[in-house]
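Lecture 7 notes. Example A: sequence first, then its structure tokens.
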Amino acid sequence: MFDECVRCMTPEGGGRLLVIGFASGQIPKIAVNLALIKGFSVVGVRSGAQLHMFNHKYRDECHQDLVNWAKAGKLVPPINGQEYELSGAREGFRLILDKKVIGKAVIKFNVSAKL
């Protein structure tokens, strides 16, 4: 996704590319001449650390907003869209290894089965 974001930066400049994490497992690299030519900034954001830079009241308000959004159903985590029975777990793990899973892969266990 990082490379796509770099390509989306316009030559008019003034954009910011925020680096928040590396969910893909790969740490991307950027040719700094692209930032120079297109006139955008690359900013590292440590989301947890950023909140501690502000006063506690602001941090608490941000946290409460997130909690309220989650309760209202406004925050929906992306899931691969499939659940896997235990017998299909190999396929689920293969998708994880191939980095085709966004969010979580769900493997269902039959807890009522007798062992």
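Example B, a different protein, same format:
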Amino acid sequence: MPRAMHCRAFAGVIAIVVDVSAQGLFGAAFIHANLWWCKLRKTTKLGKFPIIEVFAVTLVTAILAYPNEYTRMGASELIARLVKSCSPADDYPLCNYNQSEALNVNDKFSESYDEVALSGVMKSLWLLTLAMIFKAFITVFTFGLKVPAGLFIPSMAVGACVGRILGIGMQQLAWKYKSSDFFLYFCPTSVGCIEPGLYAMVGAAASLGGVTRMTVSLVVIMFELTGGLSYIVPLMVAIMTSKWVGDSLSKGGIYDGHILLNGYPFLDSKEEFEHITLACDVMHPRRNEAPLTTISVSGTTVGDIRRILQGTEYKGFPVVLDSETQLLEGYINRLELAAAIDRAGKAYGVDDTSLVYFTIRPPRHQEAGQPDHVSLHHVLDVSPFQISEQTPMETVVEMFRKIGLRQALVVRNGRLLGIVTKKDVLKHVDQMSRVDVDARIVH
């Protein structure tokens, strides 16, 4: 087997070790810690003083980061230095190796280049360890601040620190036991076989993968940053392994956690809904609930519309033929309805007693002295999405995912029965998932 293939195989094995030991575990621990802090910020008085929190975090960062040269420099500069391979021309402490023998400057992997680490490298290992701990700790508090502090670069910096430390350790181990059969097989020359910079690069990618649970897109990003096809395989292995380790400890990445924490109406297309429930089990109104707030086609005035807008917070309203038959005529969005009423209120001859109509043409007869009618046909959705009360929720969930619905009206023979919103679907999916967990515990 050629020497280059030995090196790649050996580097691939170590990349998995870096990923499993540090990045997947770090990702899961970071997600739990950050979500705990953000939840504390939302539920306590801490969230009422965002400026004080920013100043406090800035002060602590400045005090703790300045003494260490690796935390004092920018995170991008730190990553660039960690992923760079050392050559005899480098004079910074991280590349302080024994160069007592004659060197060939044009070949950084020359046989005369001694890889025995000196005091500068040993000191850098301690500083990198402190930098890794500091950045992992402080990022828990900076991600979610009112001032953007980033997630990609700090996470990659943590992984690069871990990878560089492990790479230097394996480099020194290979040099010390270079005569053993194991290292003779993988590193027959013992010099230049192990690249600490490659370990830092793989560690940075795996760390970000463990935090965000990104896969293909992260591999593409790292490929664009490095520009090397030979690094694709170790990067793919590290990123996928970090995702598997992270998923075994916590569900979803940091962004999924914040979506749930903030209550955003997001339906994950990766999760399948296989429960036997119907739309009538989820729709509103249910028994002992107030009827839906609807708008009748006939007899509704501008004043009625304004009272509905002031007395409710719904995002939209079904439009029915009348309150008795509840025959569905369409659906109207709250913002569009409010804007149309505001524009109509500024027109001459319109007041709260003005009748509204939803047809293209206005009513034929208008009594003398009666205020002008207001047309709302241009803001009426005459073909809203409709489902039956017997529609399986599995089908409803797929519709909301693939079509991007915000609500679906439940009808029977054209008569309005209720409404299912995206938040209703999310609550139902979450409720059913908890039922599954309880069933597993019982069994």
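Note on Example B: The longest strand covers residues 415-421. Confidence is low (pLDDT under 50) at residues 101-113, 438-443.
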